[in-house]
Amino acid sequence: MLKSVPLPFDCSGIQLDRSRGLASQLYQALRERILDGRLPGDTRLPASRELAELLGISRNTVGRAFDQLYAEGYVRTRVGDGSYVAPLALHAPPAPKVTAGPLLSAALQRVQAQHLRVPPSGAPRAFRVGVPAVDLFPFATWSRLQARFWRKPTPARLGYGDPAGDAQLRELVAAYLRNSRGLHCDPAQIVITCGAQQAISLCAQLLVDVGARVAIENPGYRAAGHAFAAAGAQLCGVPVDSDGLDTQALARLQDCRLVYVTPSHQYPSGVTLSLPRRLELLEWAERTDGWIIEDDYDGEYRYHGTPLAPLAALDRQGRVLYVGTFCKITFPALRLGYLVLPPGLAAVFAQRRALDMRNSEIGTQVVMAEFIAAGHFQRHIRRMRLAARSRRDALLRDWPTNIPGCGALPSVDAGLHLCVRVESVQREAELVAAAASVGVEVTPLSGYWLDDSATPADQRAGLVLGFAAVPEAQIAEALRLLRGVWL
Ligand SMILES: Cc1ncc(COP(=O)(O)O)c(C=O)c1O
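Above: query sequence and pyridoxal-5'-phosphate SMILES. Below: predicted holo structure tokens.
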């Protein structure tokens, strides 16, 4: 087991103007470095005397800056062991910008303009979003299947494989979707991907022309928006209400023929797209000769009521591209998902994928196929659904009802997260920072909106809480800590 070593403190580049308040400048410089990831969580702060000497200022000044950071939750102390940067639920910092050279392509600049941030990594913590109960994965079974495959793989499987994915796995995915979603498709319509994200990215690469308008839910899954924008799309945010994506607002968009939706469990609001809206959406695609990308990222998790048929199962015109993933039922690092495509599109999607990566690693595909064929997958889905429901209950049961500025928790019938409204973005920032100061991850809802949203800033505020990543005891402990800093 590796022992965790405190990260070194780097204060290079801190310039203080002696004609202005030094403590507040130092506070701001450190805060900025914490927020943009230059001072990551668990970085040990130097002793105030040491930093004062380094910067040529008084120890009191440093103390005042540290106090402010401590009060706002950016820094925490470990008894007898100094002060550390709090592990905030910040996404990893964006890559440094490439600025030199006259030949920066438009494609490069589009990616750079996105300010992409990767999701938080490391061991799951309460209340990380997008992570299922990874602690329940049957690793013994998986490693047995892996060992069996690698002991004597058939030579035919060791060359370049089918870029659309392993044939047996595609057949099993088709059977699974038929039985679990009422979605009838031919295995030839399926392309295996590295998770839902690659499936969305392939859609962006192949369906978006530079300058084309793409409709996305607002608030919504930002990484999908980034994939479309990186392909040159002009993003059009469509509001979401209690019935899901507002199809009338979509219909009012001129020259838009592609929409990305999360109908079974809108991300992040958690609402389900109603049946009338589903039918309107299909009708819109037919009328505009457009495409619908249906992201069913967490469709296995339904706790109450029967799920509505996916758009892909209702589609009679070949207008829906259905995205599924194994990563929310196993663990995100598995990187395995799939696309179900209208018949005419499958071959070209596979060709595009061959250009990116030839084919996915064979071992994971074959083992997943065995895992499904032997019934482990269905058993694991049941286990994961039960666990997520019980973890949801633990959160709902012990959630403090009197958090100033925070609305009531919604009822949660599906998925792995919930979303609660907060009165203002300022209050949202306070709650997030205070939670981080005690090592609890809560994700600000305001980060899920497009920057140019018409919705007033304070109406975008809220907290998104993933409830499945850690067991009930850790949820209870996290709520105890939150009570200490929020109430
Ligand atoms: C709405 C939505 N779609 C897709 C994904 C990506 O899933 P995957 O890990 O399979 O790429 C996520 C991940 O959190 C998500 O929230």
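The chain has a mean pLDDT of 92.
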